[in-house]
TrEMBL record:
This is PNPLA domain-containing protein. The keyword Manganese does not apply. Residues 1-69 form the PNPLA domain. Gene3D superfamilies: Cytosolic phospholipase A2 catalytic domain (3.40.1090.10). GO terms for biological process: lipid metabolic process. The lineage of its organism: Bacteria, Pseudomonadati, Pseudomonadota, Alphaproteobacteria, Rhodobacterales. Keywords: Lipid metabolism.
């Protein structure tokens, strides 16, 4: 299901505009194995409508940028993709991979080696690999459609943070990753190539 705050008459976002933002956030964050599914009951026309239980949107669209374009096109909010601009926000680019020293003989690898039980590979490296690459692929496709009208904000983290991480160290890693954006000063940082993506995002927002 695709949630949208637009009043749409067709497609995956139909009838979703009245659902509370907190329910959308809880539903799309209900990652299997980390959190329970979230039940949405919303008021529609004075009556309670039970939409059932929802799991993390990442199981359906880890990067929903193409879904957003679909909703806009399917409901005549735009006449073509050229009228669209978008900012896609990720959860952070984490340094997770399988080092060469952990591989050994790759021809002997199976399920347990990939998930780190029969090798020195980081736990869930395969899951992170699939999620990260699928999100990147969606960004690439959207970029081919929208050109310069899309910006992907996905700051590089200095270390991995668990999906349900909430320690002080976890928050510090995430804050450190975005602090240069928070401290951005156009007069001072105009020529900093590391802040180019943030400059483009601000330009898009100011153009809206």
């Amino acid at each position: 299901m695709t949630f949208t705050n637009q009043q749409v008459d067709t497609g995956p976002g139909k009838g979703m505009a009245h659902i509370a933002l907190k329910d959308v956030a809880l539903a799309t964050s209900a990652a299997p194995s980390c959190f329970p599914p979230h039940q949405i009951v919303a008021q529609e026309g004075g009556a309670a409508v039970n939409y059932g239980f929802f799991a993390d949107g990442g199981t359906f669209a880890n990067n929903p940028i193409m879904n957003a374009i679909e909703v806009a096109l399917a409901n005549n909010k735009i006449s073509s993709s050229h009228e669209t601009s978008a900012i896609s926000i990720g959860i952070g680019d984490m340094p997770i991979g399988v080092p060469g020293t952990a591989v050994g003989d790759p021809l002997q690898w199976g399920f347990f080696e990939w998930i780190g039980l029969g090798s020195k590979a980081p736990y869930a490296a395969l899951l992170e690999l699939s999620l990260g690459l699928s999100a990147g692929n969606d960004t690439r496709i959207a970029g081919a459609i929208l050109g310069q009208n899309i910006v992907r904000l996905n700051p590089k983290l200095s270390q991995s943070v668990a999906l349900d991480g909430r320690t002080a160290d976890d928050y510090k890693v995430m804050l450190d990753a975005v602090q240069p954006w928070i401290d951005y000063d156009p007069s001072r940082d105009a020529g900093n190539p590391d802040l180019e993506v943030w400059r483009r995002a601000l330009a898009l927002v100011n153009g809206w």
